[in-house]
Specification:
Layout lengths: L9 H7 L4 H4 L3 E5 L3 E7 L13 H19 L5 E12 L7 E11 L3 E9 L5 E13 L4
Antiparallel strand pairs: 1-2, 2-4, 3-6, 4-5, 5-6
Family: Belongs to the thioesterase PaaI family.
Pfam families: 4HBT (PF03061)
Keywords: Hydrolase
Length: 143
């Protein structure tokens, strides 16, 4: 049974990202499972640090994007939205090229907060980063 409030598709989720940071960095949602979200980001000059490997901040941007999108897909967007409260990341191995793939899965879905774990792998399937994000579930202001 799916945890999503509606029935999101890869196409609708990607369209919803618009022309902001995820698009600029080349992020794409590639899979929407019943209880997880998968996305990719290329390792290019836009996402590398000066030493030629994936920038840790780019990994965190992918993690925050996947966790935020997933969290917002769980709630009724007419009543709530989710915003990041805290994020951490453990960078386990460098990635110099190709792309990284992240998978976000819920650790906790509560009334006022959610916690998501994002595991990122390189093109060979090697784990390069583990991140966890806490999201606040905020009521949409009355008009």
């Amino acid at each position: 049974m799916a945890i999503w409030h509606s029935s999101p598709t890869v196409e609708t989720v990607n369209q919803g990202m618009g022309e902001c940071m995820p698009t600029y960095l080349g992020m794409k949602i590639t899979e929407v499972g019943d209880d997880y979200l998968v996305g990719t980001m290329p390792v290019t000059d836009r996402t590398r640090q000066p030493y030629g490997i994936l920038h840790g901040g780019a990994s965190v941007a992918l993690a925050e994007t996947l966790g935020s999108v997933a969290a917002n897909l769980v709630v009724d967007a007419n009543k709530f939205y989710c915003v990041g409260q805290e994020i951490n990341a453990n960078h386990l191995r460098p990635v110099a090229d190709g792309e990284v793939t992240g998978k976000a899965q819920a650790v906790h879905i509560g009334r006022t907060s959610q916690v998501w774990e994002i595991r990122m792998h390189d093109a060979r399937g090697k784990l390069n980063c583990i991140s966890r994000i806490t999201m606040a579930v905020v009521p949409v202001p009355s008009r």
